[in-house]
Amino acid sequence: MIKVPPWFTDKFSMEKMTKFCHTAWCLQFFKQVLAVRGVSIFFTGTPGSGKTQKKRYVLGYLAPFETVIDWDTGKDDIQLLFTLGLPVRILIPWGCRLELRGNVPEGTEILGVPTPEILFDMIRPGAVNIISLRNFFLEEKNLKRYVRAMFAGFLLRLRLDRFKEWLPAVMSVDEAHVILGNLRIDRSPEGMATGQDTANILKECRSKGLRWLIVSQGFYDLQGTARENTPCYIISRGTIVEKRDNPTLNYLSGFARTCESKHGWIVLPNGEYYGKESPIPFPLFEGAKIRILYRGFYDEHKDLMDDLEIWDQVDPGLYAERMTPGEPAPVIPSRYAIGDQV
């Protein structure tokens, strides 16, 4: 018998917890995933299969206990994040603008990040932190270089407890191939290097209480290292997995070919799965009525030819903190000062 402790149940309504605590798969999901910090989840399914809705369902259980960090896909998916009942902070590249129109909750912040290396220092605990980058870059390669600059030194700082103010946390990445690399689409050096950097972070972040919610259209859209470090899977319609890679997902993918978008199957870290021939009906969430406008491009006037060139820019507005102060120039006295001396 699994008992759900009060520290979890007290955060939700009695009606919701009554149903949760009397459902076998919910109890196992709590024991193996929700109650264990750092356990990552991989959501997969074809477009329109309800992956983002399922991710929102899981975030609803994690948000009261872990700092939420979500990557904006640029496709108006972040409206769902305004329904978690927490203040929202949106981080955008310096020099760009993001406008929200409509029923914007009080306390919503939009902050420009002076340099990508300090972005994770601007994460706010107790809030939904949205990293909005994708619609501010003209070139995909420049976006990946910006992401690599963000993660430069991330693992070292994580091991040194530099982020303890906002840990434990959940890193939610929709359209994950953009951040974690997709060798089937992007074989460029930038894409491979970005994927390797984030895969290394995935391997080490669990011990520090940082979990990932990875959402991708295909099981094979990500590097193998990323898939291997997500022990829990939530699969939706259209999932295709070879038997040699994961026999359980291969078996369930047969039922997922013609299911509805609200349906899904959960495969737990111990290999057990729930739903079988009768899938789990996930709830539908309505997003906030907010219109999002993206203004400006970060790389419009910057040629990021090399991943280290971002350190060599001399734009005083963006990189003032890295500029070396010049030698003091001689001050020529005014004629009034000379007159006073005479």
Write a compact overview of the structure shown.
The chain is of the alpha/beta class and 342 residues long. The chain contains eleven helices and 13 strands.
Overview of this structure, please?
With 342 residues, the protein is an alpha/beta fold. It has one domain: Rossmann fold, CATH 3.40.50.300. Helix content is 27%, strand content 18%. It has eleven helices and 13 strands. Strands 1, 2, 3, 5, 6, 7, 8, 9, 10, 11 and 12 form an eleven-stranded mixed β-sheet that branches. Strands 4-13 form a two-stranded antiparallel sheet. Helix 5 runs parallel beside helix 8. It is elongated, with a radius of gyration of 23 Å.
Overview features:
342 residues, alpha/beta, Rossmann fold, eleven-stranded mixed sheet, two-stranded antiparallel sheet
How big a fraction of the residues is strand?
A: 15-25%
Oligomer state of the chains in this structure: single chain
Percent helix, as a range, is 25-40%
Shape designation: elongated
CATH topology: Rossmann fold
Task: Itemize the secondary structure elements and their pairings.
Blueprint: H1 6-9, H2 14-21, H3 24-34, E1 41-44, H4 51-62, E2 67-71, E3 88-93, E4 97-102, E5 109-113, E6 128-131, H5 140-151, H6 154-159, E7 169-173, H7 177-180, H8 189-204, E8 210-216, H9 224-228, E9 232-235, H10 247-255, E10 263-267, E11 273-274, E12 280-281, E13 290-295, H11 335-341
Parallel strand pairs: 1-8, 1-9, 2-6, 2-7, 3-5, 3-6, 7-8
Antiparallel strand pairs: 4-13, 9-10, 10-11, 10-12
Helix pairs in contact: 5-8
